[in-house]
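Example record used in the benchmark description.
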Amino acid sequence: MRARTHSEVIIMSEAAINEDLTVIAAFTKSRALATGLTVTVDGYDQLGVKIISDAAATEIGTSGMYMYTLDDAYNDASGLYSFVFKTTDADVDITQVPAAVIVRGNNTSPAGSLPVTSSVSHTRATLLDFIKEYAGSENAKPNAALYDTLIAQALYEISERTKLYQVVLTNAADGALTITSNEVYIAPDYISIERAEWGDNDTEVKQKSEVQLDIDTPGWRTATGDPVYYAMVDTHTLLLSSIPSDATGKLTLYCRGYLPALSADTTVQNPLVYIPLGSQLMVAYYVIANLPVPACKPINDSREAIAMAQWETQRRIDSRAEYRAKYEAQIDIVSASCSRKIRKPFTY
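Model output (structure tokens):
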């Protein structure tokens, strides 16, 4: 197999409309990352129109990777935004390195959430039509309240099992977090914390248990200064390893959360867009699988009528089981896809 050269590598990221676009590129010398370069960037919007020229890029530490952030004022439409990182250093293996950002979704996307994954999506109406069609085959009366309850439960379970929905929380002036002394309250509608950062340099705050902090850092509960660690006291309380003197806007938590509710209001963010289009009907499958199955009444007291009623009841039970299997198959597909996207390590 022919070795891949650096010139074939494009570092690509994703964002939603009206978000800053951050891109990263790497330069090499003799097949090793090149540090200390002066790097500039040209940028092109989704139509291929040049929107920045020779903007300064910043090296990430001394990593040999260079970062540029395009102001959100330029990001007002979905599509592929492309960039060329350039250096005049004659010793690098290649003097121009491409990078790109895929912009998806719309400006009603929740701040900090994962980019919209489907350009087309089902809606509450299409799901209800699917469910009602099934219920009609059993001569059941539509029960909108029950359907909405089961749809909400499906979205909850999908969020728990796939962890496909990310929310970024901060303690900025308009953020969702508040630091009191060294205690941070987190609403219980978040599944897990993937990463905690402190300050303007995205410094990671690592997790330890309270017991481990007591052993490693005696007196940490009353210490002052920038926190280095945090401990989870319960499902919604986080303790920083010190009491920060200047805290506003310094704490950022990257969390896995629960998908928003599915609303009939078309101006509200549709949570189904975070699920691949081919798997979105699994929400309806979940509803059907959990519909109640009342025993069918025989049309008369004859043996044949009783046997037919029993057969029909069993058929409906079996049908629910078939839809449960369909749901499980789809959630396994989405879970595997999310695991690959979220947890696959970056390699250069």
